[in-house]
Specification:
Layout lengths: L5 E8 L6 E10 L3 E7 L4 H4 L2 H4 L2 E4 L11 E11 L7 E4 L2 H12 L6 H9 L1
Antiparallel strand pairs: 1-2, 1-6, 2-3, 3-5, 4-5
């Protein structure tokens, strides 16, 4: 069984349009694995909306050697992943990064309360 707080490389992720390779971090399980995207930057749409900008968590290349640059965990929306999607793991998040995600999730305006509770309990 795969564990939460692990990072995975998803080839041709179906949640992007068009499908492309993505890093994701699994943060809870609700029948399926639920995760947040890791993005190389923050887009202008998010930058112009403080409540969305507050949902971004910095993840440093120096802490996660597989990254090619400092990136952001986008905690505004959860995506569903199957076990088969998660075949290329890169390890677990650092404790400090998990704490940062929980700080953001606790005050989220975009996540359902039940998912906030699940993430906070992990």
């Amino acid at each position: 069984m795969l564990d939460i707080w692990c990072i995975f490389w998803i080839k041709q992720c179906i949640h992007t349009k068009p499908p492309k390779d993505k890093w994701v971090v699994i943060v809870c399980i609700d029948g399926v694995y639920k995760g947040f995207f890791i993005n190389k930057g923050i887009n202008d749409f998010v930058k112009k909306r403080p409540f969305l900008l507050a949902s971004q968590v910095l993840i440093k290349k120096d802490d996660y050697g597989f990254l090619i640059q400092d990136s952001y965990i986008d905690c505004q929306k959860l995506y569903d992943f199957s076990y088969d999607d998660l075949d290329s793991g890169r390890g677990k998040l650092l404790t400090e990064t998990i704490k940062d995600i929980k700080k953001v999730v606790k005050d989220s305006e975009t996540l359902e309360k039940r998912y906030i509770n699940m993430i906070m309990a992990n």
